[in-house]
Input
Amino acid sequence: MHEVFGHLSEPGPWRCRKGSGAGVSLPEASECVTVVDDSTHFDMPGSCAFDDEGVPGSRKLLVSAGVFTGAMHSLETAGRCGARSSGNARALDIRSSPEPRMTCTYLLPGTLAKGDLLAMASDGLYLYGSLTGSTDMECFSLTSRGGYVIRNGALSARLGPISVSGRISDILGSVLAVADDLRLFSGTSGCSRAGQGYLPVSYGGPHVLLGEVDCRDA
Output
């Protein structure tokens, strides 16, 4: 969610229009998708009681059942968009201007077990871990640490790193099911954007079953 969705919901000043509310326009996702940015996970990198403009941190609902419900704002972008600051203004240091940035961003869990998703997949690929990720706000590219072939709902042959890429609108709409096993991870090198990096962040989610996506050996 960090690369596929998170950066899209960070509306920098150049992406805001007065009275536009969120300040960004995003495609609807699958109804299985609900995403939050929660700066109150104080045991995770990026979390904070107050942002760098003194606004209290909070749990922000970004996507609810597939529908975009709000963006992450600073005081500046909130004013430009006719919204309220979400407490996401973050600066790399005292020489940098605060910008809307993620804190702890993750996909909320569903109700199915991981085994249920494997059974639903029947035949396909199981990917785990994250090596790299990037986005240009329309398309994305992610590389897993590894994977397995799924045959008849069970993991079989082990694979090396796999790259997944495509249009963000397509991947958000291709989520078929979400498991109940939410895990949060620390961003090992932080997040770099708009010349400011690397800010501490964290992210996570449960196992997800996707439809057709473009996968290839990394």
Q: What stands out?
A: The chain has three helices and 19 strands. The radius of gyration is 18 Å. Residues 6-217 form one domain. The helical segments are 75-81, 114-121, 168-173.
